[in-house]
Amino acid sequence: NVVTKPATTKPLLPTNVITEVKPTLESSVKVDVKQQAPAVKQDIRYTPEWGKKEFQCLLFKLNGLILAIPLLDILSIEKWNGECTAVPGQVDWMLGVYPFRNKKTLLVDTASLIMPEMLNKFESDNRMLQYKHIILIDDGRWGLVCNTVSEVITLKTDDVRWRKQDAKRQWLVGTIINHMYWLLDMKKFKNLMKIN
């Protein structure tokens, strides 16, 4: 007779025994597969109310640049022969007082105020002789001197690349795209004069 050996089986663990599996170092480390995307700085542009519809601007020349002022901010344009009365203790960009319609208009050396870093290219005396016009703003309180005034143009909102909300030059509200002319925000410009 052939004697068969019983099959050997591993003993089962008792039901009352709890086994604890300790995680290895690799399994205990959680890997964040979803990497956080870097924050993208939003390019927020500032458009004044008057720039949200069709508007007109006056172009004028200043030391080789062509700038634009919204027509609604201009009271008058006067020819200037260089005469004005200096005020004791006035700031560098102030030229003096100019009589206009029984008012005392404060004349501003526009270039000295907004782009003093470029004035080393021009001799002061020659630069002053080249100023031939005054653009009066703020009901005649301020007068911006310039070389010449040019023409009035009509613009739409899309014609301007408006400045960023946090731009350093708040008075520079944008650039006229087709010509790369600077467009001035006179509200911010007046604030600049008051601060200085």
How does the helix and strand content classify structurally?
mainly beta
- Low-pLDDT segments: none
Look at the structure and give the mean pLDDT: 80
Characterize the biggest β-sheet.
6 strands, mixed
Helix and strand sequence: HEEEEEHHEEEEEEH
Task: Report, as a whole number of angstroms, the end-to-end distance.
Answer: 119 Å
Q: Enumerate the strands of the largest sheet in spatial order, edge to edge or round the barrel.
A: 8-1-2-11-10-9
Spatial shape: globular
Beta strand count: 11
- Our count of helices gives 4
State the helicity in percent bands: 10-25%
- Strand fraction band? 25-35%
Report the C-alpha radius of gyration, rounded.
Answer: 36 Å
Can you put this structure into words, describing what you see?
The protein has 196 residues and is mostly beta strands. It is 13% helix and 32% strand. It has four helices and eleven strands. The protein has helices at 25-28, 110-114, 124-129, 186-195, and strands at 55-62, 65-70, 74-79, 94-100, 103-108, 133-137, 142-146, 148-155, 160-162, 172-176, 181-184. A hairpin with a 4-residue loop joins strand 6 and strand 7 (142-146). It is globular and about 45 Å long. The mean pLDDT is 80.
Summarize the structure.
The chain is mainly beta and 196 residues long.
